[in-house]
Design a protein that fits this description.
alpha+beta, BirA Bifunctional Protein, domain 2, single chain
């Protein structure tokens, strides 16, 4: 059974989290799961995203994917694996299928649709990935709850999955608070599932060599 090192944080601003993730991806050699319950408000764009006009900090992350608004009611879960340590082909579709198997044991009525995590036809989690020579990363922002005004700051994406049917943000998303009693219950449920597949240990900080940083404020 492979070892998985767990980082769990009560509240870390998303910029700090992304900097940490990028360092762990590029400079660490361990398999890692990071859970973070909330951030200061921000809009986070994929590496190729177009700048939004909004009264929140704008962050361009190192991974692909779309633009999201995050805040104290967002739950972040990230996996970073060595390719040789897991029996998962290091390509986007296979990684998404692995997360589908994993999260179907965490969330009731969960489905994967066009790379979104949904209940029925409403989205509660969005994903992005980064695949390099020897390691890959998959991170998700889950909606525990949301501020409608902040959601309306986002422009409609140019490309949308067919199941969205052109719906605006507020008609397209659903919060996890309707399905769990508290935020930490999601992390507790996930950790129980992870123990079935990995030897889960607390992450111990060690000095890491300098590495490239692509995450920036814009």
């Amino acid at each position: 059974m492979k070892t998985l090192h767990l980082i769990e944080r009560g509240f870390t601003p998303i910029y700090e989290q992304l900097i940490l993730e990028e360092q762990l991806l590029r400079a660490d050699t361990r398999n890692i799961c990071l859970i973070n319950y909330g951030s200061t408000p921000a809009i986070v764009m994929g590496i190729s995203g177009k700048k939004e006009n909004a009264p929140l900090p704008l962050i361009k992350r190192f991974s692909g994917g779309g633009t999201v608004v995050v805040d104290e009611n967002t739950i972040f879960i990230t996996f970073i694996f060595n390719k040789i340590d897991v029996d998962i082909p290091a390509e986007p579709k296979a990684i998404m299928q692995w997360t589908e198997t994993l999260y179907s044991q965490v969330f009731p009525l969960f489905k994967l649709r066009d790379n979104d995590y949904v209940f029925g036809d409403r989205k509660f989690g969005g994903n992005a990935q980064y695949i390099k020579k020897d390691r890959w990363l998959h991170h998700t922002s889950f909606l525990w709850d949301y501020d409608p005004a902040r959601m309306e700051m986002l422009s409609m994406p140019e490309k949308m999955p067919a199941y969205r049917q052109g719906r605006g943000h507020l008609d397209f998303i659903t919060p996890l608070k309707e399905h769990f009693t508290h935020k930490e219950a999601i992390g507790e449920s996930l950790k129980k599932v992870l123990h079935q597949y990995f030897k889960v240990l607390p992450y111990k900080e060690i000095p890491l060599p300098p590495s490239r940083q692509s995450t920036t404020f814009i």
